[in-house]
Amino acid sequence: MAANRCVICIFTYSSWKVGEQLENYTKYQLKEHDELTSVLADRDQLFVIACNKCFKEFETVDEPDCAAFAQIAAECGRTVTGSMKVDFLCNKTQTAKKLVDAIPDGAENVFVISCGLGIQTVAELVDKPVYTATNSLNYTGHHGMALTKKSCDACAQCYLNVTGGICPIVDCSKSLVNGQCGGAKNGKCEVDSNKDCAWEKIYQRLAKQGRLEEFLHQPVQLRDYSRTSHKFVADYVKSIRENRLDGYYGGVHPSERKEYSEHIALERFPEPETVVIPLSMHAGAPANPVIAIGDEVKVGQKIGESAGFISSPIHSSVSGTVVAIEPRLHPTRGDQMMSVVIKSDGKNTLHESVKPHGDIESLTPDEIIEIVRESGIVGMGGAGFPTSVKLKPNKPVDTILLNGCECEPLLTADHRVLLEFADDIIYGLKAILKTVGAEKGLIVIEDNKPDAIELMQSKVADIDNIDVVVAKTKYPQGAEKTLIKRVMGRQVPRGGLPADVGVVVGNISTTKAIADAIRTGMPLVERVVTVTGEHIARPGNYIVKIGTNVRELIEHCGGIVGDDVTVKMGGPMMGFVLNDLDVPILKGSNGIIAIDTDHTQTVECIKCGRCVDVCPMELSPLYFAKYADEENWQGMKDMNVMDCVECRCCEYICSSKIPLVSKIKAGKNAVRGMK
Asked: Would you identify the CATH topology of the domain 360-519?
C-alpha cells in the first residue's frame, strides 16, 4: 500500500497549579510508543496542530510545542512539515474559523492529539480521515470549554481512530464498539427514536473517507471497564448546554430577579427641590451652557447647546432659578463634570418652545431629524449616542430593530414603558421608519415578558410593516450586534456599524421620547427609572426628572435595608458602582439597584476557557487580562480588544473572579492613545 502523504495533529495537555507545584491534571495522555508507531505506519508528511493547555496556570506563550510527538514521528521516519497552535480546540465556533485554509492542499489525513472533545470537533470540521494519538483519563467532568456539548465519556481507551472521530461510547445508546446492533430504523436508534444511529454515521463517514474496508478488517475492540470512567457531568452545565448557541454565540443566563418590580406600575416621582443637570450625558463633546447664574428657566428650555456633530443639547427638567454652573460629581464617569444646578419653583411652567410639531405625515425626514436633535434625544439604554446622528446613517437601511429585550437582570423600566406607552412606541417607530427610509420595523422582546409581547402583538396586528419578534431570554441579547445576528442573521463586520448591514437599532425608551418630541414638543427631560434590588425596601418604577438626586430616589423607596450593600446605576452586569449617592439621574439612567456586595477574592487565571465560551463577540478575554497586567497594549490590539462591548459576561463566568472589564477598559484607553 502506498504511504499516505500527510497527517495533521492536534496536541493538548492540561495541568493544575497546586501551591507551588504544577500537578499533572491531564485529561488524556499520548498513547504508548508502540501503539503510536502502529498508528503512524504508512502515514507521512505530518502537519501538527497544537491545542494550548486548558485548566492550568495561564501564560501567554503557546504550549506545548509538539516536540514529544515530533520526536516519535522522527523515530518512525516520518516528516513533520509544519504546525499550528489553537486555544480551546473544542470550541467549535472559533476552531472552525481558525482551521479555514490552515490545512495544506496535500493533506490526506488528520491525526489528533487532544481530549475526546478536541478530536471530535476536528473530525466534524475536517473532511479528511481523523486519527488520535491519545487516551483519555482522569476525567472529572471538565470538558476543556466547560459549557460545550458532552461528547466524551472518558473511558481512557479512545476508539476514535477506529470510528472516524465519532465516539461510539457516547453517541451510541448501547455504547457498542464493534458495529451496530441491527435495530436502527430509518437511521434512528431503537433505544431513542430521536437519536441518530451512531454506527450508521460512523459507516457513512468512513465510506466517504475511503476507510470502510480498513474498518472491516480491524481486530475486535474490547472495552476495559477497570479504567476510570465518569459518565455524567454536572446538571448545571448540562442545562446550559441545551441552548448554548441559540440565536448567537456566547452569552450567559444570570439570575433575573425581575420579580421585585416588573409588576409595579409607573409612578411619577415627586417634584425635586433641586436638580443637578450635567452638560455631558451623551457620547461626544459636552454641551456648552447658554444660561447664567441667576437666570429663571422653564421646563423644556435649552440650557446647554451641542458643541459638535457628536454632541447633544441639554434642557431644564424643572422651572426655577439657576443657582450654580459648576463641576459636580458625574455618576458614571467618576469625576467632576460641568453641571447646571437649578432650584425648582415647583410650578413646572413650560417654556414657550414646547409645542407640538405636527404629525409624521406632514413632516419630512430632515424635519424629524432636526426635532430629535433639538430635543436632546440620545440612546437611553446607557450608551447615550445622539439619536439624530443614528437616524442619518448615509447608507441604505431596510430594517429598524427596537430593542425591548431589557436583558440586564433586575431592571424593568423598558418593560413598563412597553406596557404603559405602547402607542407612543409604535408612533415613534413609524417616525424612525419614515426618517431612515426603512421598509420594516421589528420590536424585539425577550420571552420573559409575555404580557408585553401579547400587548404589542395586538397593537401591530393591523400594521403591515411592523412586527414583534420574540427572543429567548439570554444576556446580552440586547447588545446591538448580537441582536442583529439573532434577529436578522446578519454579521456586523469587525469595527463596523449596524448600518453596514442595513439595520438601525433603537431603544424602547428612546423611541417613546421621539414620539413625545413630535407630538408635544417636549424635549428629553425625564425618563423611567427602576429602583430595585434585594436591599431596597420598596422597589418600584418611576418617571423621574433628569437631574434628580439618587439619594432622594432611594429614600423615597424606603431606603436601603441590610448591611454590606453595593449600589449601582444601571444593572448588575454593566452598571456603575456608586460610592457617593449624591449624584444625579442622567438621560441613560435606567435603574438604581442595591445588591449584595461581592467579596469573592481574585485568584490566578487557570485558563478554564469559560470567558472565551461566553463572549458574544467571539473574543478571548483571558488574553486581555494577561496582556493588561504586562502592559502589552499591542497584544490587546492584535486580539481585537476594541470589539469588546463590555457586557461583563466574561467577568460573570470567570472561575478566578478576575476584574476583566476594568483591564479591558485600561487596554482600550491605551490602544486609543497608540500612534
From this structure: Rossmann fold (3.40.50)
